[in-house]
Structures are given as C-alpha cells and as structure tokens.
C-alpha cells in the first residue's frame, strides 16, 4: 500500500497597491503641489507690492523732509517735452534720487535722510516709465514730484488707471492714464505723487 502525504503550503497575501491606484495618488499629489506653488507665487507678488508701497511712503516722507529743509524738492531737470527721470535700476550710487540743479549741500541731504535709498525688490527693467520695468522712478520739479513703482498685482486699485494719478511736468499737470482722460497710456504703475 502506498501512502501519499500532503503538506499544505501556507499562502500569504501581501497587501499592495495596483498601478492604477498609484498613478491616481501621484496625480492628486501633483495637483495639490501645483495649487500650493501657485498660491505661494501669488503671495510673493503681493509681498513685493506691499514692500513697494511701504518704500514709496518712506521716500515720500524723506522728500517732504527735504522740502521742509531746503524749500524745494530735488530737481531732475525735467522740462516740457523731457522726462529727466532718476530710477533705482540705474548704476548710480546711493542715493539714486539726486538734485541736478542743487549745490553739494542740498544734494547730500538725501544721504542724510536715507542711510540706504530703497530699491525695488526686483530692481530690473528697461527704459524709465516702461510697463515692464521693476524699479522706482523719480522726476522732480521745485514744487512737485512724481514718485512711481511698477505694480505686479493686476487688480490693485492704486494703479494709475484706477486711481487717476496726475503727472507733473513744468508744462502740464495732466492725468497719467488715458482711462482718466489723460494723454498717457494705461500703466501698471503705483504713484506716490505730490
């Protein structure tokens, strides 16, 4: 007589994810990462604009202090038909706002008011008053000035086309943005003018 012995093998089932489940999870994580990075980018843009506004307020206070001491604002030689703008992207040493028609004592007054003249967080750009330049711009007459920065936030209600800022030159005191009836183009500039 022949006997057969049967030994039962234990089969263990290992819990695992299928390929479809793994791809679904990776897709969801990718989408969440995209949303987080997008929100972070928006927060950075808003933070740069908040700094620009704070810098413009700080420079405005310094310019008013300069006016109180000297009886005029730093002049840049602006005349009818010329812009004569100083901007923070220039290679000028601090202070980048300088008085072109003043004596040495008046010109160094800006150094007294600012240990380091504020510069735009990006501080790069093309020509003065460009729509793609990220820097601070200053144009000064004896009794008025334009101080501007480029806003990155599209819906900012302080932009020239919404707030109807006026541009100061010695031949006109006109609205900057055409949306307000001015001769200039609608721009993304924030103004802190006097």
From TrEMBL:
Bilayer-crossing regions: 12-43
The organism's place on the tree of life at top rank: Bacteria
UniProt entry keywords in alphabetical sequence: Membrane, Transmembrane, Transmembrane helix
NCBIfam families noted in UniProt: IV_pilin_GFxxxE
The name this protein goes by in its record: Type II secretion system protein GspG C-terminal domain-containing protein
The species this protein was found in: Candidatus Ryanbacteria bacterium RIFCSPHIGHO2_01_FULL_48_27
